[in-house]
Amino acid sequence: MQISVPNENWPGELRVAIVPQNAKKLIQKGFEISVESGAGTNAGFTDADYEAAGAKVVADRSALLSTADVILGVRKPNAEEVGLLKSGVINVSFLDPFNEQGLVESMAAQGVVSISMEMIPRSTRAQKMDALSSQANLAGYVTIIQASFHCPKILPMMMTPAGTIAPARVFVIGAGVAGLQAIATAKRLGARVEAFDTRPVVAEQVQSLGAKFVEIDLGEMGQTDQGYAQELTPEQLELQREGQKAVIAQSDIVITTAQLFGRPAPVIVGRDMVEGMKPGSVVVDMAVETGGNVEGSVLNEVVDINGVKVIGQGNLPSEVARNASEMYSNNLFNLIDEFWDEENKTLNLDPEDDIVEACVITREGAVVNETIKNIYSGA
Predict the structure, then answer these.
(1) Has 66 been annotated as catalytic?
(2) Phi, psi (5° rounding) for residue 285?
(3) Among candidates 50, 58, 57, 93, which has minimal Cα distance to 362?
(4) Confidence band, pLDDT 50/70/90 cuts, at residue 220
(5) 225 is annotated as an active-site residue
(6) Is 127 a catalytic residue?
(7) How far is CA 73 from the centre of its chain?
(8) Looking at the 3D structure of the chain, how many domains does it have?
(9) Which of 144, 210, 296, 351 registers the highest number of CB atoms within 10 A of its CB?
(10) Whether 122 is catalytic
(11) Is residue 224 scored above 80 in pLDDT?
């Protein structure tokens, strides 16, 4: 089978879907790998690295796409290039199927078998393929590095002959994969860390990292069967905002990570809360790409609100593109390895398999994923 890895042409995207190490492993399994020239450069992998791994480096993007049996990408396909793909090709990437109905339906019409990496289920078996978690982990790290760069205070306590410096106070809202990594990174850098999550079940994880879990009574709460936080009612959102207000006011750094799968992010930090922080404080809105948790945050900008810097950097994993590419590449390799039929030299995407059922969006000319199909039909 021919695997093609195109150059990412999404603005600001520095990751690559397959790194040379995994290209070599796939070639050993019997795949042929073609990589578009320059695909790995921004992540620190040269064309020569791919050639040394046994991959073919191709300059002609159209030929690369049109001859592929499998296409591995980070971002969703370019809509203008869907017509180049042959029927039956398997496209694996972040697809954003909730918001890309036109693209998804055009891929179905072209006969593309599309796998959306956002839709990999959170199960024990699928953990090694869970690209959302692998990339969120790195994004959580990046938030603290960015915040510390913009903050006029150092994070650790420091005792010097000139006096003692108190540790910076960091408040992390949301203790999912990204939030827990932000907590761990801030603690490693010596900050005093507090955290809140709408799911009381994660309090123990927060405390195990050395942070204080902030208790806010929101009434009956829980999480989905995939481990995501349930959407709050307007009344619960207001309780959360009020409960956070005092903690935010005394924090030097606030990190917001609250996102709802397939829906706009909730606004949980109002402008009044930002204005109530000390000048020089920093807020990092991790959810800015899906609408934002912070009132006043702007995608890919640092906004000054009464002396408080609100960072709205998008595509945070791309800030550490080499490691992000390595982890995403591992996720893709594990996905292929899981479904590789060695005897018949093909990918066996059994529709009855729970992982396949969750992540395959289009197949045989139709949208087959039940969740996405229901959204498109308005059901």
Answers:
(1) no
(2) -100, 100
(3) 93
(4) low
(5) no
(6) yes
(7) 14
(8) 2
(9) 144
(10) yes
(11) no
Q: What is the mean predicted confidence (pLDDT) over 95-101?
A: 95
Any bridge partners for residue 346, and if so which? 341
Strand, coil or helix: 3:
strand
**Can you give the pLDDT at residue 263?**
86
Q: Are 284 and 297 in contact (CB under 8 A)?
A: no
Q: What secondary structure letter does DSSP report for 172?
A: E
Of the listed ranges 47-56, 172-181, 192-201, the one predicted with least confidence: 192-201
Q: Which of 21, 37, 96, 122 is catalytic?
A: 122
Pairing of strands 169-173, 192-196: parallel
Specify whether 218 is located in the same domain as 263: yes
Cβ proximity of 46 and 68 under 8 Å: no
Scan for tokens 């109905």, then name that residue.
101
pLDDT for the residue 227: 52
Q: Give the count of beta carbons closer than 10 Å to the beta carbon of residue 262.
A: 16
* Residue of 133, 188, 337, 376 marked active site: 133
Residues 300, 177 share a domain: yes
Element (H, E) at 62: helix 61-66
Reply yes or no on whether 223 is catalytic. Answer: no
Domain range for 364: 2-129+320-377
